Amino acid sequence: MFSPQNGSWQSALAGAIRNVDELCDRLGLPDACREPARLAAESFPLVVPESYLARMQPGDVHDPLLRQVLPLGDELLPTPGFSADPVGDGDAKAAAGLLQKYDGRALLITTGACAVHCRYCFRRAYPYGEEPRRLDDWEPAFAAITADESLDEVILSGGDPLMLTDQRLTDIITRLEAIPHLRRLRIHTRLPIVLPNRVTDDLLRLLTDNRLTTVVVVHANHANELVDDCAEALRTLSRAQLTVLNQAVLLRGVNDDADTLAELSTRLIDLGVLPYYLHQLDRVSGAAHFKVSEERGRELIETLRRRLPGYALPRYVREVAGEPFKTPL
Ligand SMILES: *Cc1c(COP(=O)(O)O)cnc(C)c1O
Ligand code: SF4
């Protein structure tokens, strides 16, 4: 059974909150939040959809969902060791819009748009303006994928690939499925978490109605995200012919304790989603206040290893620029 669709995802997106004062008013946040938030939002604007807002606790500045999206004065502090491109994306360009770092897999930057702006985003300063927009602009990327028979998987990333229209997604998938050596399609998306009504019957059809094995990797960091319409969207995905995985980022003040991480994994499993990665924070400028030490991260994972079934334990990894895989920690 597919879920009923209440309103279009496009109108939910158009109705997303993009104004600091509106966010503060709606949640009844202290006035002291406003000025720093306005300043921090100048370099990376606030975006948060209503569905995500509805899962926050009003009046709580420490709410784990709010912390992921509320601009803070901390973002403006100088942070040695943190930079605009901490993971070496700039050196991994195989063609316009195409990144290749690892054997067998290449990643398409399909759009710079997202339905939410996560303050710790490692691509918060990515030069999306230089990437392809019209379908024709993608030809060099498709040509590079076609020429490299060692590739068997293409990852649609961004930004968030599910921000594309169904038509554009269909166009891209149709091109990819015609490349004989490709076997898998992977979609890296946060929309099922932050804008769950993007998971429509039409989307499921276009993701399943092609010859490629499709893996959807969502991005949730806290069990409080996995309720209501989001829980329904994840169930809908996991009951379709899709493998659904989650990647989370270890974030100070959001999920840096064992109970929170255990509950995240348990909720994901309940919804048919396997925990895949727990990422060490990428050192992107503006995100230093989210950092949890690797030592603390390892302690947390060891605690989880004792508490959870093996399949519910995410791999704790860090992306090191130039390394041939995500480095296990
Ligand atoms: C993270 C990443 C991948 C995927 O790596 P997996 O370990 O297979 O999840 C692929 N390409 C790029 C450029 C990446 O950053
Ligand atoms: S959804 Fe992903 S790409 Fe978009 S802002 Fe959040 S972390 Fe960055």
List keywords for this structure.
alpha/beta; 2 domains; ten-stranded mixed sheet; 32% helix; globular; binds pyridoxal-5'-phosphate
TL;DR of this structure?
The protein is α/β, with parallel strands linked by helices and 329 residues long.
Descriptive account of the structure:
This protein has 329 residues and is an alpha/beta fold. The chain has two domains: 68 residues, no CATH class; 239 residues, Alpha-Beta Barrel (TIM Barrel), CATH 3.20.20. Helices cover 32% and strands 15% of the residues. It contains twelve helices and ten strands. It has a ten-stranded mixed sheet. Helix 6 links the parallel strand 3 and strand 4. Helix 7 packs parallel to helix 9. The termini are far apart. The relative contact order is 0.13. The mean pLDDT is 94. The site of pyridoxal-5'-phosphate has 9 residues, from strand 2 and strand 3.
